[in-house]
Amino acid sequence: MSLEIKVPSVGESITEVTLAQWLKQDGDYVEMDENIAELESDKATFELPAEKAGILRIIAQEGDTLEIGAVVCTIEDGDAPSGSGDAPAKEEAPAVKDESKPAAKAEADESPETYAAGTASPAAAKILREKGIDPSTIKGTGKDGRITKEDAEKAQLAPAKTESKPAAPSAVTPTTPVSKGDRVERREKMSSLRKTIAKRLVAVKNETAMLTTFNEVNMQPIMDLRSKYKDVFKEKHGIGLGFMSFFTKAVTTALKEWPAVNARIDENEIVYSDFADVSIAVSAPKGLVVPVIRNADSMALYEIEKAIAELAGKARDNKLTIEEMTGGTFTITNGGVFGSMMSTPIINAPQSAILGMHNIIQRPIAENGQVVIRPMMYIALSYDHRIIDGRESVSFLVRVKQLLEDPARLLLEV
User: Fold this and answer.
1) Does 13 or 199 have the greater pLDDT score?
2) Which of 33, 317, 389, 406 is labelled catalytic?
3) What confidence tens digit (pLDDT) does each residue in 219-229 have?
4) CA atoms of 381 and 379, how far apart (whole Å)
5) Which end of the chain is least crowded, N or C, by CB within 10 Å?
């Protein structure tokens, strides 16, 4: 008797998911509650567990878009193969030795079946075959050293890729360098996350009256404070003292003084929040995600730093839950880590404002009638003019600037 494994309901607003990766192969024996696949929604990535022990029969393929309740696979009754602990080793050993065999045999070993039995996922194996890359030369970052799709995509950019092609082009066009002759196009299906990001960004531009106001911050006081106390701070709290905690603290203080910046429009009503759930934009392997620090207004600097580190780590490992991705009353994004000097960040709907941090640049400024060199950062506040007036937006940003340039105020909350 077989059991159908279906896409579970993961949230009221989620109607479909994408099958990102199979963690087990068709015909494998799986234990109950063992993770067999990764599913990707427009908000997070989560694992699909086996609901019983038995033999896995795959139905949906990697990259398929599935509705909630759709059948992903079935699990048939069956026992674990005897001596299963030794079987993988016996099967893997010849695969390594076969690489030293003659060319004809090596080509035969590059079949889809060989990749499936090795360390590459089916999606990764397909990419590697197309690029002519030997999977044994790649160090996988997935579970148990498994080569993921992302590993395969990165591998195609390695020098080995271009070195493996000179012979073929030279036979056809010997006078044309390979580096100038390569015109490769590759198509990939948009992930659920990327499609949702695209839809939301277009909706924000079309449905809000978005404006951006700018200011600049002298970062020298914060840098001096960090240099003076960073060792004591880390020794006491077990976490480094970064810039983001200062910005979060400054924002939550300013939000109390200008509550419209922390509000949102819900049909014909304005919803004011007397708390600050700050969303922090984080670059993850599958795109930009915005996890939320709950009640950031009541946190100390070290608590904010720990929350940011935990959420950023989950984002990099695709382990964020839907609860950690939803809510939020205000967003902070830091394009400066990528070298951006100035930008106009787009509002994270249904929020009404977002603060953009940028690169810190040593620039000459006038200070007490003299020209001095200071580490300066441009900051930008994009806001929905339907709910936030110019006076409120400019005053809010000025308040953030004042707090950052006199960080003692953040500690004393004055």
Assistant:
1) 199
2) 389
3) 999 999 999 99
4) 7
5) N
- Residues 156-196 have pLDDT tens digits of 544 444 444 444 444 444 554 545 667 889 888 777 777 77
Contact 278, 291 (CB under 8 A): no
Non-local (6+) Cβ contacts of 93 within 8 A are none
Distance CA 321, CA 389 (A): 35
Q: Report which of residues 284 and 87 the model is more confident about.
A: 284
Check residue 338 and give its pLDDT.
87
- Would you call 248 helix, strand, or coil by DSSP? helix
CA 73 – CA 71 distance, rounded (Å)? 6
Q: Which CATH superfamily is domain 192-412 in?
A: Chloramphenicol acetyltransferase-like domain (3.30.559.10)
Is-catalytic flag, 389? yes
Angle at 353 between CA 308 and CA 225, to 5 degrees: 45
Residues 380-391: b if buried by 16+ CB within 10 A, e if exposed: bbbbbeebbeee
Write down the pLDDT at residue 275.
95
Catalytic residue among 33, 231, 385, 406: 385
Q: Which helix (H) or strand (E) holds 4?
A: strand 2-6
pLDDT band at 64, cuts 50/70/90?
confident
Tell me, yes or no, if the two domains 2-76 and 192-412 fold the same way. no
Amino acid residing at 39: L
Q: Is 77 left (phi over 0), alpha (psi -120 to 50) or beta?
A: beta
Domain boundaries 2-76, CATH class: mainly beta
274 is catalytic: no
SS3 56: strand
**Contact of 113 with 120, CB cutoff 8 Å:** no
Each as own residue / partner, the long-range contacts of residues 168-175 (CB below 8 Å, 24 or more positions apart, any chain) are: none
Angle at 148 between CA 146 and CA 150, to 5 degrees: 150
